[in-house]
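Dear support,

We are seeing what looks like truncated structure output for some complexes. This example has two components. We would appreciate it if you could run it in full and send us the complete token output so we can diff it against ours.
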Amino acid sequence: LATEFYSLHINCGGKEATIEGNIYEDDTDPAGPSRFYQSRTNWGVSTTGHFMDDARSSDSYRWTNATKLSANTSALYMDARLSPISLTYYGFCMGSGSYTVTLHFAEIMFTDDKTHSSLGRRFFDIYIQVTDQSFIVSFSIKGLNENTKFHFSFSFINSNLTTKM
Amino acid sequence: VQKDFSIQEEAGGVGKAIIKNFTAIVTGNALEIRFYWAGKGTTGVPVSGVYGPLISAISVTHGKLRKFYELNHQDSVRTVQNHQCSLVLSNLCTLSIQMTNKSGGHRTNLPFLFIIGIWEVHLAIFTRPNGKVSYYTFAY
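Here is the complete output from our reference environment:
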């Protein structure tokens, strides 16, 4: 049987960091317009899209903060993962159950000074477990028929997940 | 779970951390967390091509799984009847035992997994590894 994981810690866009006893794993893959990266543990990340009209020399799917951050655990916030269109993190081999998903954000590309950089506004949507929630449990009953398989399919209603926030 | 998320608005400015907690249920061994550009906001500040989702870190921890019974196969139905989910669970027990008997009484089959939604968010899982009966609830 494969190992099941019951937690996941990623320092998105940054190097491995230990915060409050948890090891936030390295996520420094350069990524790209159509890129899937699988970690050596139990997660992967997918980025899609080109940064259109990019004034930077090359598309960057990571960003490192250049200014001082007002956060105690700044190691998590110094680097961030970017993507122009979609950015998806997958957790694999997770044991069944209920999980608390904690997302850490800090806007590190805009400034709060008097320059035009302070005018930047960023909006994006967050989805958790939004793909088709149906899954299949299959097992066989040996005494009945070696080849008999029963498939139980069960669908979550998406609104269930949202109303529990 | 959240549309038009703005880090600045949530955190009250730039360079400030904001932590958001969500609950997710994993049933098929996979967890998916997706960020999608909302097609709004600026695209040219401070330079062209600055837009799209930004995430600093992700932490996922197992939640309120409570294992409240691990019983022998023989007395599982009787013992569990005192519990809040007794009716449903005992029905499940009976069902699974019947299925086992029909199949020739083998007790080494793969675990049976039953999930039932009671009200909005109450799940019960019944597994039977190695002849043992286990009950789990997720309570929210």
